[in-house]
Amino acid sequence: MRRLFTASADFFAVLVFAFIGRMNHAEGLSLHGLFSTTWPFALGAAIGWSLAYLYAHMRADHGFDYPFHPERVFPDGVLVWVGAVAIGMILRQQFHQGVALSFIIVATIVLGVFLLGWRAARMVLTRRRQTVTT
After folding, report:
1. pTM for this predicted structure
2. Distance CA 129, CA 111 (A)
3. CA separation for the pair 44, 81 (Å, rounded)
4. Going by C-beta distance under 8 Å and a sequence separation of 6 or more, which residues neighbour residue 55?
5. Mean predicted lDDT score pLDDT of the chain
6. What is the rounded distance in angstroms from the CA atom of residue 75 to the CA atom of residue 56?
7. Of 27, 5, 12, 4, whose CA–CA distance to 111 is shortest?
8. What are 32-91's pLDDT values in tens digits?
9. Domain limits, the chain
10. Rounded to whole angstroms, how far apart are CA atoms 75 and 93?
């Protein structure tokens, strides 16, 4: 259940990023337009998830018994963020969707805040809850 929530939160973060970007550039909110803006970054985030999963298992001493925690900020969240931005930009460039330097900077910052921000907030709330109960 935790992984489903985390994947949903990441997809929602990318979707909100695309929605805000389309609104700021008056590109309209058609389903096709929103999909065309979202998919490169969503696929990049999914690849980041895969890298985080592989990294978790590479760190395991005994094969595949290391717990995968995609809700963590580091390293999992950072890998998802880097995947979303790097792969997203590569796909946008390959499909001629535009990759201006200013867009790379803004996307890096906004996706970082969105993809790492909810993880950091969850971490703080979890620690606070644990402190209260002990």
Report:
1. 0.91
2. 27
3. 8
4. 75, 76, 79
5. 93
6. 9
7. 12
8. 999 999 999 999 999 999 999 999 888 776 665 667 899 999 999 999 999 999 999 999
9. 2-133
10. 27
